[in-house]
Input
Amino acid sequence: MINKIKPIKMIKTILGRELPDYIEGYGVVKPFQGAFSDVGQKSRKAVSLSSVPPNERKVLKNLAEALDKLKIRDGMTISFHHHLRNGDHVLNMVLDALAKRGIKDLTIAASSIFPIHAPLVEHMENEVVTGLVANYISGPVAVALSQGKLKKPAIMQTHGGRARAIESGDLPIDVAFLAAPTADTYGNINGVHGKSACGTLGYAVSDAEYAAKTIAITDNLVPYPACPIEINQIFVDYVVEVESIGDPKGIVSGTTKITKDPVALRIAKLAAEVMESSGLVKDGMSFQTGAGGTSLAVAAELAKIMKRDGVVGSFAAGGITGYLVEMLEEGLFRSLFDVQCFDLKAIESYRDNARHQFMSASMYGNPHTKGAVVNNLDIMILGATEIDTDFNVNVTTGSNGVIMGGSGGHSDTAAGAKLAIVVTNLMKARLPIIKDKVTTITTPGENVDVIVTERGIAINPRRTDLLDKLSKTKLPLMSIDELKSVAEKITGVPKAIETSEEIVAIVEYRDGSVIDVVRKVL
Amino acid sequence: MINKIKPIKMIKTILGRELPDYIEGYGVVKPFQGAFSDVGQKSRKAVSLSSVPPNERKVLKNLAEALDKLKIRDGMTISFHHHLRNGDHVLNMVLDALAKRGIKDLTIAASSIFPIHAPLVEHMENEVVTGLVANYISGPVAVALSQGKLKKPAIMQTHGGRARAIESGDLPIDVAFLAAPTADTYGNINGVHGKSACGTLGYAVSDAEYAAKTIAITDNLVPYPACPIEINQIFVDYVVEVESIGDPKGIVSGTTKITKDPVALRIAKLAAEVMESSGLVKDGMSFQTGAGGTSLAVAAELAKIMKRDGVVGSFAAGGITGYLVEMLEEGLFRSLFDVQCFDLKAIESYRDNARHQFMSASMYGNPHTKGAVVNNLDIMILGATEIDTDFNVNVTTGSNGVIMGGSGGHSDTAAGAKLAIVVTNLMKARLPIIKDKVTTITTPGENVDVIVTERGIAINPRRTDLLDKLSKTKLPLMSIDELKSVAEKITGVPKAIETSEEIVAIVEYRDGSVIDVVRKVL
Output
């Protein structure tokens, strides 16, 4: 029988991006066909597990015994969550130990990668790690990826898409390493107590429930039972205590600060007027925003309107900051849904206030459940690195083509929200934000409704309803092309960046289709 | 091809019970081989689900619309939980509606059946319902089963075994009907608010997560999001509001009463002395008892000892009563694990006290997880209808052979606990409790350590360690045969009951093997 190798063919996403139909180290490419093209009957995968009879202990002596028990072999996929953010010690600790054992060819499925994970670069160079799947990647690892230092292309997912991939079986995990600020001797875990407290553990839930093996790594081992319990003993095989799982300074910021930059404040004010004019600022409304200065300024403007008009919202969601906690405490929202605490105030509130509720990444944004929280969002405030004239947004790469982030919850919330507003300066570092073509498409334009800049506001032409409402106001509306021209008059038209043909990362939309790829920088 | 029908063969469990190797309407019989014979690599089944995109509503107009949407057909399995106990309106309401539609041949997978479910008897007679799976059955349905009124033999499981069966795929559920004291418009559910508040919803979790379709039936529909959330929107397809899901009088008892019967108090005192002498009453200890008068009296005796000696236990578990709440509040336990609230005080405590923690039936007792709560139990106080001289316990049938209960958590906790003590009067209704052969084996003797009666205490000979410890005390120890003789001297030896050969119920051990069968009464 003749072994016919099918030649690689170029195919197009619905947004016109050209992709190969097969990518070495990734597999068959399912091109993006629209935000809601892949719904309907879905499944959660079967899970194999070792049942634990009475009298079996779960606490192991040390990481070495844990790695023995876990039988980690070349080629396995091991997972990590990012709740310890830029203070995380666990990923480095585990990888160093595995590297010393001579393990090769691992795939790291981490919900996010931060600058603290710089040692991963060496493991990539030595092929200890040859695959990486993450929702957000910043720092030296992102740069190394862009330089082609990982053997296989990285896979960049969304927060909801990662939960979907794990639960559906698209991303099988051999061992989930759970950094646990508190764990009891039988594997019940919470993130609210202990010296490395980080708050909710929303991004770790799918890992714990669907990995073949799950181990809690803690620096606060408590007697059974832990209280509260965020991740449950029935999903945890082993527990190991280490000196430190993280550096508190990198885990949370002390306080949440709202920007004082007058341009950002103007953008926030305009965004608030857009929200108000949309008719969505009313009792029962829901809202999400990021932790950046401008995003928080939008929340502050919204709070003013809500207080003035006596509006009580249903919930605010996402990664939670002290600012949203204050809005909860002031009665502006009835509840918070928290997948990740950004600061100490959020951790305390989540620990003490029953209305500050937990959500897993799956509940947050997995499109293949019976309805994620993002589906109930009214207003979402988004950031952007670049936007094209079809409203497609890039938050994955910088204008130089180097990876500097990723979707996180960007695509998930944009898809769910009734009104997704991008707030951004029209120019950043003397470069215009709006382009004919973004370097990388992270979030499709069909889910981006409004762009608010200090110079003007552009409404997605699909949203004729919004155009109607907002054209009755004095808001500085422009077409996106006009907005682009305003910037280009000042900055000039930037030269397109040049990349090699080599694909270094695949950008998966939340449903697992490929919305774009990132190529090696020259 | 010749179709050979394999003749039915009789096989034996490890306890010597004779069973057919195949039972019509049930299937192949896996005979019980010992409490821990079936551990090791297990699996949770894959789940198919309809993903819910944004803008799809879950609230349906009424039950009729719900039944239309759910497309319930002849032969399906529909499930119910029993948190509304003898006040539950939901099972009857749904079955009446389905019967009116002419649906036949349903299997009801209810965690328990109570006297209020009497209308089910007519549905059995009319073959609207031909199968029943439950962990506990009392009242007219139990009697009707014993009379052979259900077409197929009923399957009687344990609380942990039911969760195992659902999660493993042994008990596939087409539609789970969740009686929801509070539900929001997107399917988040709790049991602590609303006129039909029942507390935790621990027995409903596996149903919600593993059924092909899940619907919340509520009489307290609240705006999104509910708070707290016990069962999560990502598992719920539809929500429907009805006038009433239950009668509060039948849902919870107002207060928990400890027996004043001097015989029961003597048993409790003896049981407490056994516990103390066992060496298990010490800091970190864990404890579970039932809600009956004698069981609570044991808790009261234990509380006295703990206070006297300054013992702080780790947790008490199970169905929770106000009495255990008081022990928590007095600092005698650090935490409660609650699968079901028995009274108003328990509901309030569960609602307001973070140390009063939720557990699902799976976390409670499923033997095929990475470790259920029962695995960490030190002392378990059990009831019994009959006990044989091998310490096998019957809580399924009365001495007349009629079904009057079932394991519930009996077998689960007995298997997990370090010390499982049966407390019982030596005679009940002029009949001796201890027999050569119990009518039905619910819990295997290998997991029953001590029997405490008002006339004497028998220790399972397997527990030589306990015998050593207790023989140093003044406790009235006897062999189980001696204890049996004491009773028989008073009551005489009761005549063995006669039954027909027809099997009306199959008693499944928690691992899904068959530990006994119940035959039709004559």
Observations:
- The mean pLDDT of chain A is 96.
- Residues 262-278 of chain A form the longest helix (17 residues).
- Chain A touches chain B through 59 residues (CB under 8 Å).
- The domain at 262-497 of chain A is CATH 3.40.1080.10 (Glutaconate Coenzyme A-transferase).
